[in-house]
Amino acid sequence: MDRFKKMFNAVQGLISEHKVLALHDVSDGGLITSLLEMAFTKKVGLDIMINDLDPKNLNNYFFAEEVGLVLQVDEAHLDEVTSALTSVNSVVNTIGTISSSKDIVISNAEENLYRESITVLEKSWRETSHAIQAMRDNQSIADSELSLLDDNNYSGLYADESFNEGPAKIFSISKTKPKVAVLREQGVNGQMEMAAAFTLAGFEAVDVHMQDLLDNEVNLNDFNGLAACGGFSYGDVLGAGGGWSKTILHNNAVKDQFEEFFNKESTFTLGVCNGCQMVSKLKDIIPGANYWPTFEKNTSDQFEARLAQVKIQKSDSILLSGMEGWSMPIASAHGEGHAQFAEGYLEKLKASNQVALNFVNSSGENTEIYPLNPNGSIEGTSGITAAKGRVTIMMPHPERVFRKLQMSWKPDHWGEYSPWMQIFMNAKKFSEGS
User: Fold this and answer.
1) Residue 60 lies in a domain
2) pLDDT for 83-115, tens place per residue?
3) How far apart are CA 237 and CA 257, in angstroms?
4) Tens digits of per-residue pLDDT, 223-242?
5) In principle, which of 23, 276, 293, 310 could form an S-S bond with 271, CB 3.0–4.6 Å?
6) Is 334 a catalytic residue?
7) What is the DSSP letter of 230?
8) 68 and 132 both lie in a single domain
9) Residue 411 sits in which domain range?
10) Taking Cα atoms as reference points, which of 340, 343, 339, 348 lies closest to residue 395?
11) What CATH number does residue 413 fall under?
């Protein structure tokens, strides 16, 4: 245990010094499984050398489920990393290198002992999961995810934007702050992240529960903006956002407040995930929302949570102003995000610049392919706008990824904030100019 503790601390030190590029523990399946899983994530080949190993001991070497770590390091840091680990009595072996062949090759000085494509190996690795998914969800969804392995054009997540987070833009100092109502209902859980993002952008974020409006303790007229948060209002038992929207529509005083707020040209509204579903059901009191969709169960019939690639379209949305053409990953987590349109409605929305956001593939093209499109919406539609761009709703969660460290993948050129912070900066700019 003492040796393991020292090894752990040594590795943490190397990570903090940026000497470790990737890391995987040796656990179920042994060393070979750890190596394969690392290769699968980036779709790269490996040249594994076993010069000092008796071929008769291959099984013991590759499949032993012993305590250990696999580190990927730059060759320039190899000696330093090796020295740091041996100094704490860890046994260090150089296993091999990444190759451009996209094959797993195991060899010694005399010959190649094993060679296979990582695509073939990953399909085998996924065989059980694919079978379960086909029975639990549906065959087409399971096959779609598996077939992505054969798509040579798919290169994964990427970032294409021109975000400038300049501190002066985010932490603007003013005597008065615009106020945003961070709206929630029973079962909503995204209010803290939403409030944090708006606060950093220079707002006074106010926690507003629906009961506050019903009791007439809070009035929307006192706010510059409204943010309806994500979660599971009323457990989605009346359909996602259904109970929440009915609380508004069936209380005349509250309904009138919302309708007045939506029509007021100095205000903005952001609805995210459950808030998106809820606000979409208020379309009859939102100007220009006649052709909005409903949001139904995902094609997979499952709750889908993942980092998904989206592209921002040219739209009237004031919250996405200046972000046209940007494409970045974003947190997506919902069970009912499939946008369903009445016949001809999507075309009308596109013609009036009301489609704001789409799930896209790694070439930046709108996609309906699962899991790149996690809910099955036509053309990957995941965000729309109305009221001359003052009301914007989207299924993905920008408030969950406004800081770089919140992302499980991000490009090297980002600073402390991700480009999704621009939404909240745009809201501040709009409020100050209204």
Assistant:
1) yes
2) 999 999 998 989 999 998 899 999 988 888 899
3) 26
4) 999 999 999 999 988 889 99
5) 276
6) no
7) P
8) no
9) 167-433
10) 339
11) 3.40.50.880
